[in-house]
Amino acid sequence: MLAFLDDPKVLHGIYALGALTLFFIGLYGLLAKRHLLKMLISIAVMELSVYLLFIGLATSPGETAPILSDGLTAFTDMADPVPQALTLTAIVIGLAVLGLGVSLAIQYHRLTGKVDVASMTELKEL
Amino acid sequence: MSWMLRLLFLAVSLSPAALLMAWDADLSWPLIEGVRLSLTLTPLAGFFLVLLALVAPLIALPMLRRPSDVPSLVLFVLLLIGMQLLLLAGDFVSFFIGWEVMTWSSYLLLLRSPRTDMVTSQSYILFNLASAFLLLAGILVFYSVTGDFLIRAATEVSRPQALSLVVLFGLAFLIKAGTLPLHIWIPRSYDQAPDLFSAFLSGSISKMGVYGLILLLTLFPDALTGFAGRFLNGPAVGYLLAWVGVITSIVATFKAISQEDMKRLLAYSSIAQVGYITTAIGVGSSLALAGALYLALVHTLVKVLLFISVAGIVLQTGQRRFNDLGRLIERMPISFFGVLIGIIGLAGMPPLPGFAAKYLVFVSLVDARWLLLLAAMILASTAAFIYCYKLVYAPFLGHANSPEAREAREAPWPYLVPQVILMGLLVLFGLFPGLAIDVLIDPVLVGLQMAPIGSESWAKLSTAYGGYDGVVLMLVFGTAFALVTGLFLLLRGRMRRAGSPHDLSFAGEVPTAETPLHYGAGMGRELRRIPLVGWILRQGTQGFYLGLAGQMRAAAALLGTLYVGRPQTWILIAVVVFALSLAVQAMMGGL
Amino acid sequence: MTLPLTPVWFVALPLLLAFASPLWVRLRLLMPLLVGTPAALLLLAFVLLPEVRTAPLLETIVIAPPLGIHLQLDSASWILVALISFAGLLTNAFIWLADGEPYLRDRRAFVFLLLLIAGCNGMVLTGDLFNLYVFLEIAGVSAYALSALRRDASALEAGLKYLIIGSVAAVFFLFSVVLVYLQTGQLNLAAIAVGFGEIPGPMQILIGLLMLVGLGIKAELFPFNFWVPDIYQGSHPAVAGLYSGLLVKVFLFVLFHLVFLLLADPKVVGIWLMGLGAATMLIAEVVALRQEDLRRMLAYSSLGQIGLITLALGFGVEATTAGGLFHMVNHTLVKLLLFLTAAVLLRSFVSAQLADLAGAGRARPLAAALFVLGALAVMGLPPLSGFASKLWILKGFAEAGVFWPVALILLAALIEAGYYFRWIKVLYDPSVQLQAVHPVGRLAYAPMAVAAGLIILLGVAPFLVDALFSEGAQALLDRGATLTAVLGAGS
Fold this sequence. Notes:
The complex is a heterotrimer.
Chain A: H1 8-32, H2 36-58, H3 81-112
Helix pairs in contact in A: 1-2, 2-3
Chain B: H1 2-13, H2 15-22, E1 27-32, E2 35-39, H3 43-63, H4 70-88, H5 92-111, H6 118-146, H7 159-177, H8 185-192, H9 195-219, H10 223-228, E3 230-231, E4 234-235, H11 236-257, H12 262-283, H13 286-317, H14 333-347, H15 353-368, H16 371-396, H17 403-407, H18 413-431, H19 433-447, E5 460-463, E6 466-469, H20 470-492, H21 523-527, H22 531-538, H23 542-560, H24 567-589
Antiparallel strand pairs in B: 1-2, 3-4, 5-6
Helix pairs in contact in B: 2-3, 3-4, 3-9, 3-13, 3-18, 3-19, 4-5, 5-6, 6-7, 6-8, 7-9, 8-9, 8-12, 9-12, 9-13, 11-12, 11-16, 12-13, 12-15, 12-16, 13-14, 13-15, 13-18, 13-19, 14-16, 14-18, 15-16, 15-18, 18-19
Chain C: H1 8-20, H2 30-54, E1 57-64, E2 67-73, H3 75-98, H4 107-125, H5 129-148, H6 153-184, H7 189-196, H8 201-218, H9 228-234, H10 237-262, H11 267-288, H12 294-315, H13 318-349, H14 360-363, H15 365-378, H16 385-400, H17 404-427, H18 445-460, H19 466-477, H20 479-487
Antiparallel strand pairs in C: 1-2
């Protein structure tokens, strides 16, 4: 019944839709929520959607993970390894940024007691 | 150390003179790819270099008085270097570099005065930079037309190109010269600048605008006649320029009369004089250019002399307003003679060379048959007598109106030496009106490929419309002066002092100690009651420029609201712009 | 074993030193090492210069094909690399010599500075789109951290704001990288350039716009630059000087590098970018008129100059491009000088507000004089270096007979004069007697004097370096040569 999912076009379409939905959810959170941590999480969600898009669209149904193990000795029907490697790198970077952001937010909260991005008014136009 | 520094400064101030003597080759200096600065000395630049060479050491000398202001000295040196570069420029890039160095160093010098306020300094720098940037725009248009930056006659220029060039260059130089709607920076800055620097501003820097205007004539040999043909006996475009000059002189003259402050009066007088020069350049004939150059020479000498005398008065009394001065003739006799000679030159009265200069301009106007202009110019130069009289009467004659004026002493010698030298020069040129023609002006005219004026002898000024003999004139006037003075001194012993000035009473009112009793007091107030003159005096362009500044501030406030400190707004704008441009592209390209 | 002198050191050396520094905390040599690294990089740049001028240096470190790090050092990127090292050196020297705020003289600050330098060098040198993203994030993270280093409310606020907007930019950029890879299957810039034309048009536009938003935010182009003044105001002026002097230049360079490399015909995009540049320039200059905070004013002025450089580079003619590159260098020198002056003034008088700095010219004559010099140079007044580069740009426009940018540039310069001279006038206000609160070491002026000296030298004798910029412009504009150099003659 779900055989139509084996069609790469359909599957890629679903991935793309899902990733875009996730992207817009992240964007919504970023624009609508004023809590610093929520904003940072929203950014992370946006990043995540891009990773998902990357991995999803670079892989077609039937391809295996690009790892030689469990008796696999030759690269047949293997997914393109580059997106996966790149996504791993990007995840690490994203994590670092998120970590820095959260730590800054916590320090800011400790110092001023504020968590609202709209209340950050130390620096502004006259 | 300090002595070394002073000597060095004096040496630098003599550099224009040295340059004039020693210049024999052309120099060049690469700047960037395709741009090479080349320095050369043309006769026209040589004339203005002579003016600079005369003025620079005369102003440098009093600047050295202790306590010396080292930044001022450094800036003055930079200013001199910039002006020499400007005059020696053989290409427009060097010209512009010199122009800009002159602009910013003079601005920084202006700031050395404690009286300079924000409006003055901002209007000075903004007008001058606007002039500089118009010049640069003109230079770039010129470059795109001719393919290089060399200053030379532009041939093969199409009409719109020539028009844009003339407008850009013309506006740039008119701002610097300070003709009417663009003059607003002059009175304020001449007034508030350091007293000696005002002399340099009026004497030398304003002449650079004149230099530029004459240079513009050399760029387009037929600029004046080529555009719109001839009007009466002169060029039609020049007619417009001449009216700009004359209107400038008339308005500035009346403004000058109504001033209560010596330096401000001189500033307006300076605008008026440069207005005459502009008129003469507008006429554009060989006679007129000779007149323009002669006027430039006389105006430089006279204004430097007057500003230094005034600087001496301000130094000794701390007062600048006519109402606070008076009776200084006994305390500052040399300064008195300085101002006296100065105003005779300024008013263009015989026997001093101001007369020769104005005579040439008048004759050129007659030659062009622009008689309406001639009448207007005579009106302006006659009205100028009033402020000239005020300038010598109010500080030196009458009654001393402040304690400082009562106790003043003669200005120190570094102020007096330049005055004496300048008086000597003025008398010399008065005796020999042909000298300036022969030595200074004719070479320029020949260099511009115009007919020289020529003179039979140095004592004579001769034109096709007649001339005069300077020695004879000087002898007549000198004799008359000696006779009158002698008679006065002889009879003076018999006169008795009437009494205290406060014995005087008029119309039943008894003047108090505060009532200014000198002749020029309240002259401006009375002038405003004359119908046309009053209307002219009430008009001003200041409101327009202030409005412009206000509009800019409003625009800044409006655009500043874009830069709100909210990250979510930044992101929203970015996303919206992204989506919009995507949509636009989709509609245009049919995604 | 001798270490070959290759471009990889520009990235590797600062990275290695930065990451290894926690191991050597006890070493007395550590701090001078951290401070001096940019000097070593600058030296390396000059050693490599003769080689670079003959042919671009290419280096590929293969991890596993097709994964590898491609570095490319040509005449254009050499200018940026040398500039980065020099700016880093000046800033490090200033922080080290000024004996100022302890949080800036800390090991951490220098580590972040080195990371920033490594990231910038990497972005300029890399020939690989994904590495570009990685280096962008390295530079970004170190910049966020540097902004927040002071850890008071305003610094943390600046750091957080910077982090949020910077991450958004990075997400947009990453999105475009992903799309490019999905479309072409390549990450090497030259290989992408070959295949880019075959991507369907709408997708090209989408990729282009995503990149524009991502890099536009980072490169401070209107309408993506609203964050700039806040961040510059909250950060330490020396750090803000690096942002304005170095980070933005790198992003601009990357933006135009991509435009000129990927697009066979960059004209249309160039015109759009010129429009953005003009808007950036004019709006920033106008808004700067009403700024009362020195750091904010400098931020807007920096935006204005960025707009000018964008205008020049977007035109894509050799003269304007060379002038634009030269102007990048000049603006870096000038803004470093101005921001370091701001640092001195801020430290001396504890405020960067216009009203509090009235009369500072007499309390700190040297700093004020350097400010005047910098202001004159930034407005492009001769004989300072800003004039030479501006003339070059204007000359390029005049040669092409295009005059609207000339008019806008001159108008912007006039507006710029409106506020710089206002500040100068206030600094020399004679009616106020201002007393300095904190002393500033004499040595702090040394890096500023170096910058000032270079500004004057490059203004009086720009012919010393103009060939470099011409070659740089050729390298940047000559797409074919780059492609041949990277992919071989066959492609």
